[in-house]
């Protein structure tokens, strides 16, 4: 997962944008797609449209557009029913809710004003949980069948119009799926090196200026646009394993 969808729910617009800036400064090769809701009414509307975030920063006490008090904990209960894998980070100036938040599953309880080290710890844990979840096997539809795929077995994925080819060591699985859709099912060991290719960094033998050589002997291209972020992601990947 190289693109992480983040929803910030806070009726203080300035605080919401401060969180957005902290996300921009977080040291990672991941891309955060951030949306902001400043009321529970706006949150409900997003959910009705099928929006499914990976991580939610939820204020505990909000005022909805009608001016009545809203409860972020209740909102999270509804959110978890629709998006059971979402990682919830509570953010509040109301410390009296520090025990009540345990009525729901959550990653962290942050108090305002936010401390950068606490914010980083919370986001680290949320991403770690996401990576563990998406490292599990997933299914892809192939004709009338559903095939089980383990991310660790994938060498690379290439897109061809409305289809993807998932290259394993001993076979190629072709399915009607988008590259973005597959990317959301994969852990952070994968990086998009080209508009049409995702590669498993566990399988890389050598990275050149315009191509990647895999341990299997296969080669895949690196686009000029993605050359630098791909190299940085691979260097980070290698550093984590020292």
Name the features.
five-stranded parallel sheet, alpha/beta, 242 residues, 17 strands, globular
Describe what this molecule looks like in 3D:
Strands 2-1-3-6-7 form a five-stranded parallel sheet, with helices on both faces. It has helices spanning 13-25, 40-48, 72-82, 116-134, 179-183, 227-240; strands at residues 3-9, 31-37, 55-59, 61-63, 69-71, 87-92, 108-111, 138-142, 145-149, 154-160, 163-168, 172-175, 190-194, 197-200, 204-207, 211-214, 219-221. Residues 65-69 have low confidence and may be disordered. Helix content is 29%, strand content 34%. A hairpin with a 2-residue loop joins strand 8 and strand 9. By secondary structure, it is an alpha/beta fold. The two termini are 22 Å apart. InterPro entries: CheY-like_superfamily, LytR-like, LytTR_DNA-bd_dom, Sig_transdc_resp-reg_receiver. It comes from Adlercreutzia faecimuris. GO terms for molecular function: DNA binding. The modification 4-aspartylphosphate is found at residue 59.
